[in-house]
Amino acid sequence: MREPSEDDAAAIAAQLTQRRIVNVRRFATGIAHWVYEAETDDGGLVVVKIGNANQEAELDGAATWSSVLRSLGIPVPDVLSSGTLHGFPFIAMPRLPGEDLGTVYPTLTAQQKTQLAHDICDLQRRVHSLPHAAAFGFAHSLGAASRPTWKHVLLDNIQRSQARIRNAGLLPISVVDPLLERLPRLDSYLDKVEPVAFLDDTTTKNVLVDAGELSGIVDVDWICYGDPLFVVALTRVALLSRGYDTVYTDAWTELLQPSATQRSALGYYCALFCADFLGELGQPFNGNNPQPDVGAVSHLTSLLSQHLQSM
């Protein structure tokens, strides 16, 4: 089966706006969906996100969570249209101003990074106010998490990394072994984690920044129920993997005032995401994943070891 294309995005945008589409460009970030910006002949901009045939639930989730999050004052785009075209599920949204945090991060001052951390922490706290789920993990609708414990979510992540690393064949799968060896050290902490709602993918992607200020949050196909430190760790690893400083996540961490045990858990989560990033190397995904190099493997492997040692 073919993949979604610019022509599909143009057709969806034209039907929605009833205007002629003069330009379509694909966003180069994101590895799950095909996301395009379509420009109409009167200068309007529409974002069209298209999935493959088995991603319909995710895009349905985006419509659901857009409504829920907007009710909390989270600056997410409304869903203008959704449906299926040529077997591809899609949603269309207005184009919010700004670019991904990771794109503009090197141009930001330390003060701007710190203010952005305050802003994202405030938005996350609003999401925390949602009712706790009865289970843990990722949910396409309110409370619809399915894993019995938070530890199960971590093990799922590790097993996915193992499978991807094995499939890519770029490095030995044993690189993940230390994660399994160290995990029991956190058992008493993990047993106390509650199924708190949080945005798990507000990292260097999906956080839009315009003129140094937060302008919106995008790509909310699901949220996660569990430990909110999880997304702080993912964001830290995303910064470090690109050779950026961690002023932003350092400020975010301090705002949460973690205990010594929570800091240990944060170090473990960082190591887990290093393995996650290693697992992404060499995977085709949606074509946005760059070809890996030896430097990336070495850098991430070193970061994994460093964060485990920080526990």
Could you explain how this protein is built, in words?
The radius of gyration is 19 Å and the shape is globular. Helix 8 runs antiparallel to helix 9 (247-256). A hairpin with a 2-residue loop joins strand 4 (81-85) and strand 5 (88-94). It has two domains: 6-94, Phosphorylase Kinase, domain 1; 99-309, Aminoglycoside phosphotransferase (APH), C-terminal lobe (Aminoglycoside 3'-phosphotransferase, Chain: A, domain 2, Alpha-Beta Complex). It has a five-stranded antiparallel sheet, sandwiched between helices. Strands 6-9-10 form a three-stranded antiparallel sheet. A three-stranded antiparallel sheet has the order 7-11-8. Helices cover 45% and strands 17% of the residues. The longest helix has 21 residues, at 260-280. The chain starts with 5 loop residues before the first helix and ends with a helix. The model has no long low-confidence stretch (mean pLDDT 92). With 311 residues, it is an alpha+beta fold. It has helices at 6-17, 56-71, 101-104, 110-128, 150-168, 177-182, 187-190, 229-241, 247-256, 260-280, 294-309; strands at residues 21-26, 34-40, 45-50, 81-85, 88-94, 99-100, 137-139, 196-198, 207-210, 213-217, 223-226.
Write the layout of secondary structure elements.
Elements: H1 6-17, E1 21-26, E2 34-40, E3 45-50, H2 56-71, E4 81-85, E5 88-94, E6 99-100, H3 101-104, H4 110-128, E7 137-139, H5 150-168, H6 177-182, H7 187-190, E8 196-198, E9 207-210, E10 213-217, E11 223-226, H8 229-241, H9 247-256, H10 260-280, H11 294-309
Antiparallel strand pairs: 1-2, 2-3, 3-5, 4-5, 6-9, 7-11, 8-11, 9-10
